[in-house]
Each structure stands twice: as C-alpha cells, then as structure tokens.
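Two entries, shown back to back:
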Amino acid sequence: MRLTDLLRPHLDGVTTVVDATTGGLDLEPYLHLPDGVLLTRGDQDVGESELVLMSYGPRAALHGTEADCLAVLGRMRPGGRGLLLFGHHGPELPYHRLLDALVAHHCQVLRAAPLDYVHLHAGAVFVRTDELLPPHDFFGRPVPAEGFATALRIADEYVLADLVSRSLRARLLDLERDAEDTERARGPAQADGLPERLAATVREKDQLAAALHGARERVALLEARVAMLEGSTSLRVGRALVSAARSPGSQAARLPRELYGLWRARTGAEAPGVRQLYGRWRRARTGPTPGETRRPTSATPRTAPETAGVADARPHFAHRAFLSAPRDRMVLVGVLTDTTAADLAADAVVNRALPHDGRPLVQRTDPDALVVQLSACTGHGPWALTGTGLAPDLDRRLAGLLTETRAAGRSCVLWRDGPASAAPGLTRFAWDAVLDADTGVRLANLDPATDGRRRLREAFRADSTRVRLSQLARRTGAPDPLDERRVSVLAAPRDPAERARLADQVLSQRHRPAEVVVPDPTGLDELTAAGVEVRTGEPLAPWVADWTDLTEDRPDTLLLDLMCAQEYSGADAVGSTPAADDYTFVPELTPLLVRRLLLTSGTPPESWAGQGHRLFAWCGKEPT
C-alpha cells in the first residue's frame, strides 16, 4: 500500500498536516495532498482539523526515535489525528513500546496497514478521543459498531489475532533455531574442508575412471583395425609378392595361381584392384606388352587412405552452453518428460540426459543444475522405473550422474511433481534442493478465448513455466528467467501534477515496472522508495513502454496484460490497431510495449513487419 492510500480516507475535515518527523525522511513526495490541505513543520499542539506525521524505526538518523514519538503524543488534543510510520518490518514491529503512551493520551488506533516502501514498512492512523470510536476496515471505511459492541469487537479480535500471531512467532523461532543448529553443525565440517576434499577425491576418481575407459576404447579400436588389415586382400597380395621376391625360383611359378585365387575370392567391386596388382607383377616379370609404355614410379611408396568406415567413438552433443559472454540464460541437464523438456526449452537451455550419456553430458555442458523430474521416472521413457526398485541399473546410473554433477560444483534438484510414493527410491539420494510443485503451464498453450484474461494473468503471475524456473533459479543460483519480464517506462512529467499522476499510475500497476526513465528525476522520490529505479538516459530493461502522454488513463492491469500477450505470442512488439484486433499477429500497429533492442535500433515502426519482426495486437477489452 502507498502512503497516500493509507492517509486519504482520514483527511476529511483536515486542513493542516504537520510534519513532526525528526529523521532524514522527506515525506512530501509521498503524500500527494489534495487542494486545500496545507503541509507545515513544527512542534505545536495538534488539535481538531489537524493531522501530525511522525516516524519511528531502527535507524534513528533516518526514522527518528521513540522519545520523539512520545513527545508528539504529549501534544495531542481532542479531535487531533496522527499518522505513525514504522521503519521496522512487520514481524519486528515494536508497537508495545508505544502502546501504553497511546492509551495514556487517549489515542485510539483506527487503522494499520503495511507500506510498500524500501525504508517504511508499516503505518498506523490514530485519533485523540474521549470516547470509543468504531475501527476502520482495510479500505478505510468505519465498521458499523458503537459503544459496547465496538469494545467487544476490539477485544475479541485482539484475543484471536494474538492466538494466530503467537503460533506464527513460535514457528518462526523454531525455524530460526533449526537454522542456527544446522549452521553450527556445518561449521566444523566447513572449517576442516571435508566437503572440498571429498569432492576433489570423487572428481579425481571419476577422471581416472574416464581416462581408463577412454584407453580401453582406443585399444578396442586399434584391435579392430589390425584385424581388418590382417584380413584384407591388399595385405595378402603383399605377402605373396614378398614371398615371390625372396624365392624367385620356387615361389614365382606359384604366384599367378595365388593371385587368381584371391581374385576369385573377392567381390566384383574389389576385383579391379587385384587385377591391377596381377598386371603390375606380370609387367615386372616380362616387361610391358607391345604398345604399352612403362610409367615412372615414385621412390616413395604411397600409403593407403584410412578406412572411412571406422566411426568416431566420441559423443557429440547439441547444446548452447558455451558462450564467451556472461551467461544470462539458465542451462539445465535434465531427466525430464518430453512435454516438460519442450516447455522449459522456451526459457532455458535444456539438455536431456539419457542413461548412457548423462555423465559426459554434465562434463561438457557445464549446467547450472541437474534436474530430475519424478514424472520422468514413473512414466514412459528411458528413465522409466528409476527409483521404484525395479531397475537397479538405472538407479546406479542416476547415482553416478548425481556424483558427477556434485563433483562439478553444481546443484542436484528433485522436481517432485507427483506423489513421493510413486518412486520412493528417489528420496534416498542426496539432493541439494527439492521443488514440490507441478511444472507449470506455458502461456502459449492456453486459449485466451476459452480460458479468459483472468486465467492468463493468474498463470503469468503464479503458474507459468517461467515462474517455476524462477523458483529453481533461486535455489541453484542460476540466472533468473523473470528478469526477461522487466519493463522500462518512458515518461516526461512537466509539473508536480504530472509527477503525481506518473507515480500513481506506476505504483498502481499489478506488474510494476523495473525502472522509469525521465528527463529530470526531481520529485519522484516515492518511486525510488517503492523500489522502482528512476533514472535518465537510455532504458536498460528488456521491454519498454512509452508513457509520454500522462493525460491518458491507464488501468492497473495495463502492463500485466501487455506482458501476458507478449509471453503468449513471443512477439517483438505488442500494441493496438485501428480495427481493434485482439490476440492476433498483424502487419502494423501502434506500439504499447516494444523490445528494447528493437526500439533502440532506430527502425521506424511501419517497417518492423517487413524486416521480420513479429507484431501482436492487443485491444485491452475483455472478450464477451
């Protein structure tokens, strides 16, 4: 929630807002006060038609101190209102330190809500009153209750909320204690360097095994070539000629008969070679026949070319893992189903491991992670029955694949998209992370006409394949695919009113942009505090939206729907057409969302389609 959204419902009858913050916060760019409400600073008493601002947080120089807040509460008069801002995160909110002072000064908290800023995380609106007032709901509307009913409601809600919060706090403490115990247990092992030495030993063992295996393959190949040469006709003919040359008297008479027998034993395709050898021997014995000219011979004998039929035993992989630039795309080696591999390949480099080539695949592709999908082990495919106890050979190969991956310093992840009981043997392997979720859905596989825009939005935000890959990236330290969803907004606000409108449109977006590029960043501190980078120059995000015209109304789902359309279509630009085409490729459009590389290329939009860029139409209206 924004600060102005928390404050606006409580400004009825307020003419002056007093900024009593003592830290380094400048709250004026956050407030967006309506006309007729004056913002001042001072330490005067706060009475009716006045509202005071104060803050309290862990950084005294920025947020102020507890003593400052207590001093402001002492100046509250009947009818005065206040907004207390906290720099603490929700679970760490020290409201108990101010609760007694609020009660002592007859201040009732009407509404409290979290704030979506970097250094302000919560806010509470209170009023100085001499009678119990009805509290407000999440939207700032008073709850219809008076007197004793209000007291009962507040008391009941306090007890029930305390019950829930106590269980959550206990759970948090247990998790923190377990994390500390695990870190202490890992400390001696990490200090001793045992994991590194074990990984180095396993890596050395695997390298020696690979070298031995390669030597055996080369020996087998050489033995096959020797056997082939010994059985070849050329070698037998050469032996016969050598024997005849050594014993011209006894062996020369038998040579024609032996050559003729070799010729009869060969196929017709190889017979010309034997006939040429026989003719060469005859010419050497009797000289050239009449009309035949002797050709000069080279002193260096020619060697026969290598046999083309000998195959290269080295495996060859088709992948895109080796790049000279920094890796910005996740690279996976996976035991995956056909459908999952095809879906993940849209956002990552996917190399599917087979039982016979998994280990060299890991060695040569340097993946970010090895992903083993449970469905690939329980369905049909080369890894079927792995982990079920019915295929121990596959279990051994998977164990070797995990060892090779861990020796390379990469993560092994079990993607458990089904019940663990389907392959109980998988739980016995050592996994670096376990992802308990389905594999998601590609937006391209949805039908906007049937599923509707709401389903597209839900899949985009929570159920898409790209979101599942992002969860995997956070566990393995790989590049996050959601970085491809970052949007830059181009704007040029000219006055405070347009700056306020720009901040309102940006912060209300359900798919918030990553940056706002403006000629002058003055007066846009609220965007920076909300985590949106404000900068000048060229946009840096992969996608760009032009919001130069700030008079245009933009719904809070604008960027969300545009990104849904882009991810559904894979287009380079998404926009509108005069004919109000919707969810279809078009030859030209008015761009609303453009790929940054296309926008900065300087190519005019009317020639985008002619150069092969894909243009996708979106009209912004829900289908009926």
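entry 2 starts here
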Amino acid sequence: MTPLERVSSIKVKLGLLVAASALVAAVVASVGRVAGVSPWVSIPVTIGIALAVTQLLAAGMTSPLRQMTLAARRMARGDYTVSVPSGGADEVGQLGRAFNTMASDLGAVDRQRRDLVANVSHELRTPLAALTVVLENLVDGVGSEPAALQTALGQAERLSRLVEDLLDLARVDAGKAPLSTSSVDLGPLLEACVAEARANGRPVSYEVDAPADLVVDADPDRLSQLVVNLLDNASRHSPRDGVVTVRAGRDGERYHLEVLDSGPGVPPSDRGRVFEPFGTLSASADGGGTGLGLAIARWVTDLHGGSIAFLDPLPGTAGARVRVDLPLWPPARAVPHQLSSSQLTPTHQETQMPTTPPAAEPAEPARPVDAPSTDPKAAYATPSVLDDIFGTYWPDSGVAGRFGLFIGAAVAGLLGGLLIPDRNAGLGTVIVLLAAGGVVMMASEKRRTLFPIVCYVLFALLSSVAVFRDAEWLVVLCLLTAIAVILCASTQAKTLLGIVLTGISWPLAGLRGIPWLGRTLTSVSGRGHGAAVARTTVLSLLGLVIFGLLFTTADAVLGSWVDQFVPDVRPDTFAARIFMTVFVFGVVLGAAYLAVNPPRIDRNERTSQPVANRYEWLAPVGVVVAVFAAFLAAQAAAVFGGEDYLRETTGLTYAEYVHQGFGQLTVATALTLLVIWAAARKAPVETVSDRLWLRVALGLLAAEALVVVGSALYRMHLYQEAYGFTQLRLLVDVFEAWLGLLVIAGLVAAVTGTAIGGGLWLGRFALVSGAVALLGIAVINPDAWIAEHNVSRYEETGKVDTDFLSGLSDDAVPALEKLPADLRSCVLGPEDREGDWLEWNLGRERADGLTPTYPSPANATGDATGDATASVCPSENRYVD
C-alpha cells in the first residue's frame, strides 16, 4: 500500500506532496544551519532528501499510468490477458479499474472472434466436404442420381441455414434488426412452432402446455425464431422416442416459456456459456446443428427485454430445462441497437436471469503487466517523464539495478560520515576517496580498457596527495581533478566538450538515476528479499551496538582499541556526520549511475563541412596572425628599448609593465586553441595546395602563440622576482605552460588531419596532461618551494612578507626554519597540531618534528605593544593577484 493510496483526489495528493516536501526541506535546512554544516554539503543533501520524500509519497500515483501504457502496447499486439493495479481511490485508480474492465471485455470479444472463425470454418467445411463427395460421385457415375441429388440438397439446405443464422447475428451486431411488435396469441404460435419442429423428422414427440387465452405483445417472427431454435436444440439432444415439452404461463406483468427435454441435460458449469455463438451445446449427435441457435435465442430474448437461462430440472424429472422470461409489453428501451460483447457474455446473462447460474471460468486468468518476462529489460521499457526531459542525450535503456553498487555507495557514505567531519584532510579522507572510486570503477563495464585504467591510476595518485601535502588549496585542486578524471573514465569522454558535459551530468545523475535506483531496490524486494535484508540489517546493528557497548565498557583494552577507530560522536557533531553520510552516499551513487548508464556526450562529434573558398578561413586566421605579429613587435621594442623607453612611452616601470597584461596574454593563448580548432574543421584539404596553406598558416599562428607563452612566463618571472612568490602565481605559471603544450598538441592534430573530425584524442590529452601537471606541482611541494624562494629573496634583498608566509601550510615549515629566530617566531609561532591517526599527513608530521614552541614577537622584544610587533614582523606592500 502506497502512503497516499487512501486519498481520493489527485489534487489533494499533489497538495500533500508539495507540503510534505517543503516541510522536510525546511527542517533539514534548519538542522544543517544550526549544526554549522557547509552550504556545499547541506544544500545538495536537503534537495536530495526532499526528492526522496517526493518519490516516496508519489509512489503509486503515476505507476498505474505507466503500466497502462505498457499494457496498451501488449494489447495492441493481441495480448488481452493483462491487468493493472487498481486499488487507489483517486481518479487514476478509477481509470485503472475501467482499464481492466475494458481489457477483460476485449479479451472476451477476441476469444469469441477466434471461436467464431474456428467454428464457422468447421461448420462450413463439413457440409461442403459432403457436397463435394456427392458431386464427385455424380461426375464419376457412381451411385443413384435421385438419392445423390437428395443428399446434395440436404447439405445445401444445411449451408443455407448456417448462412441465415450468421446473417441474423450480423444484422444484430450492426444494429439492423428492429423489433416489430403486435398482439400475438401465444398458444397457436407455439403449436405452429411445434409443427415446424416435427417437419425436421426428429424421432421425438412434442407436447404443448399453454393457456388458451394468453395474448402477448411481441414480434411474432422473432418469437417464433426463438421457440423453434429452442425446440430444435432440445430435439437434437433428446434420445430416440424422447419427449420435448414446451410450456407457457403468465406471471403478473410478465410471462414465461419453458422447453424441457429428456436428454442428458446441461451441467451447471456450462450453463453460462451455452448462449455464446458455437457454445458448449453446439455439437449435436447427428451433426445437424449450426451452433448458433441458442445465441439467436438469446438475442431475441434481449430484443424483447427479457432473460433466458438453463435451470435445474423439475423434481422427479431429468434432462435440460431452459426458461425464457419476457414482459407482456416490451419496453422501447429494451430494443438494443447493437449486440455488444457484454450481451454475449455470462456477466450480462447473470444480471438478467431470475435464477443465476454459476459463472464460467475464464479461458485464461489475467496477468498483471509487471509479471516476470523472459526479457530482463521488458519490464523497464515503459517511458517515463524523465525520458521526455533528457531525451536522446541520456536515454534510460532499462539498465538493470545493481544492489551491490547501492551497498558500496552506502558504505562509502558511512565512511565519509565517520572519517571526514571534525578532521583535517589526511589518511581518513584518502580512505573515503578510494572507497568511492572503487564503487565507481566497479560500476563501469569498460574499466579494463586503456583510458579508464590510466584514469584510475591518476585518480589514486591525485587522491593520495591528501596524505603527503598539507596545503589545502593543493589538496582541493587535486581532489577536484581526481573526481573529473574518474567521471571521464566512466563516460568515456573524448572531446573537450564531452569533458565539460561529463561534469554537468554528474549532479544531474541524481535526477536521471531515480528510475534506476527504484529498479535497484525492487531487484531485492521483488524477489522477496526486501523484508529479509531490512530485518537482517536492523538486527545486526542492534547486536553491534548492544554487545559493543557492553564489552567496550567492560574491558579497558578493547575500549582503547575502539577509541582508535570509532569517532567521538558528540551531539554537536552528530548532525554534521549525518549530513556528510548522506552527501557522500548521494554523490557516489550518482557517479555509479553515470558509469552504469553514461550519457551520449560525444554523439554530435562529426566531420564538419569545409568552406567552399580558401579565403573564407585563411583571411580570419591571417588577421589573427597579424595581430600576434604586432604584439610581438611591441614586445621586442620594450625589451630592446629598456626601462627608459617604457617610462617615456607608457609612464610605467618595467615591473608594472610586465604585470599589467599577463591576464590578457593567458586569454589570448586559450583563444588561439579555438582558432586552430575552427580553422582545422573548416579548411578544405582535398588538394596538396590546400593542405600546405593550412599547415603554413596554423604553424605560423602556433609559433607566435608559443612566443606569447614564453613572454607571459618571462613576465611572471620578473614580477615574482620583484614582488615575491605566491601559490596563485605558481599556478598561473603552470597553467600558461599547459596552454602552450595544448597549442602544440592542437597544431599536431591540425596538420596531421586528426582534428578535422573533432580532435577526439585532444580532449583526453588535455585532461591527462592537466592531471599530470597538477601531480607535478604536488611533487615539488609548492608551499615549501614558495617558502624557499621567499627566504632566498629575503637573504638577497632583506625584503620579506611575514603575513603571507605565516599563512602557508605545514609543508613550508622545513624551508621557513632557515629564517632568523625573530622572523621564525612571526611566521611559525605556537600551533596545536594534535589529531588522531585518521588525520595523519606527511607535511604535518614533518612540521611536528621540526617546529619548537616559539615565543611571540612581543616576548622576543620585551614589548607587547603593536609597534614592537610591527618592528619585528615586517610586511611589504605586494600587488594583489
């Protein structure tokens, strides 16, 4: 039962859904704010929990609609043995019940159609076969001609009766069988019907028991047809010398007709089906029946607004007893315009008969649409709303749920909640990252190919930086790059655009993966293991908590061991740990779904249509080359003219000059890559001349771009020599050099023709080379490198910025030890670095071994005033990066 199943209105359900989701989001956000959880963690967790509540409450609201879609598709293929859940009290539940009724009716009609075709074929084949044999004998001169013609006439008359009966049913089904009523003296009509029945030559006797003065309002032709068909049916099933009795009587405003025979009778289980065309009594002993007589009798009864049924024999008698109850004056509403399928089913018969016969068993029980199928993806082929949102960019092809990945993400989330909050980045952070990466790696089906293997190695190396380096900015950059690398391994991204789309797809996976998460949970509960898994989990946790508390409090040694591995879960950190657990679980599960069902990020990469004329691409590239040449000429003038020339022409010092345009040069280098890519896609390369022009133009542009890169690096070098070394300046140096490497790679791709199809290897080259460059920065220990250069600069110039150096991480402590004691006290000072083994970090470990407790600058000079501090701890005015 779904949470909102009892609600009888879709509007009310939607209102409750919105209210509950908003309330849960508000409560979770408030708890996160009070607990001091970072918005980067609390906002995604709040959204995820609100979506989970929405999904829980919305369960069952749209599922019947999706199942109706799947059932309708199966019905279109001729499978009417389907049903959908219809337990809801709202409009969808009502629609489900109506759908099941429609499916049942269509199934009955389809069965009748198949039976009709089969039986009509059989009924037509028998007299036709006999007629063919007679005619063949006549052609061959075999047999007596009068006798043969009499036999042929009998078979032709049998065919004629069958065709007439079929035409009668066809007229009823088409609504062309009007009821023409008049006053009918019932006694003479029954006598005439018995006389017609006697003319058939059946070896039975007939008796009529009817009031002489019974006059009714009826269609005499149709009523005669009714009685004759009942008599014919009774005579065919009676033994030789049997008695067939027709009785009539009045019952108030109605009258009844009964036909009794002395045959075997009709079993109660067959009484609901005998009035269908070619029903269970269609086959007679002599083969003379058409199997449509009782169906026509049923139709005539319905026309007159009455009912017909087989009843139990009278006491002391045997045989079949069929009773027809009719009104003395048929109402106009009783005239059906069309004989529907429900009028030929047992359900309609039971509502009309005074004595309800047992309902017939259905030919085949209805199956729910979610019945197991031989195709593992068949149950998941129904499109959802998310398919309309994501379209062909990210189709959900019904990939099966994998409960192991769900458990892995839950374990990673639990590790994150236990090891990350209230700790600095260190060994615990690396453990969580490697656990998450292992889940994502196992989710990918292509994890054994070359590119994913390289990405997994880079992911492990980048994640391990948190163990070796204490610089927070470096650890954050390495972790972000590690995430990007493993996500690209999951999506098999090839181009720069594909890498960007991979990053965008990761948060969207939380929405796109909702159906997959549902299938994952259903894969356990659907096999009957859901309750067992939940029960086992609860009992295991109870056993762990209860007996763990007992034994850890009883044994001090065991308690000390547990303290080393289990964090101190205090009330002020409990909420933060819960938020971190949910956050890590969500992001790992989203990354796992990205690996299980990656989006089509590179599907639009195709060969571009080259331009028709060479000047269309050569002219824009030539303009860019000319601008680069002008810039390089200005650079040469500044270098050879010296600082005097700069002051005369610009009013700037050389240090100010080199700092002024560094950002613009970086942007120009990045745009050069775009120009090379566009030219390589649009330039025609059919002839040798075209390829030569492309290589010369792009080679010249790339050469100029590399000179610009060198100029930018030289500018930054001069600026750092003048104003000191910082992390940002080091990063900018590495970034500019990396752009120069990409310029070279882009030129190689262009001149060799591999970029004309999109440069599929260039994106991966940029990703891997960028990750390697970041690892190179981590290897050189950037904070220590920066500290060493600033110490060297102090030794040469006497200039030092203690405010900046005091902000460096513990990685810089060995280099800062070279400063004089008074400056060391300004830069290092007392610091508490206590932490458990999960915070272990090589940089902090080395700092703990080298850094003694230095006195404060005020104590060093014997003066606690701010002036003394300023005199001991110099700070120079540096340009802001």
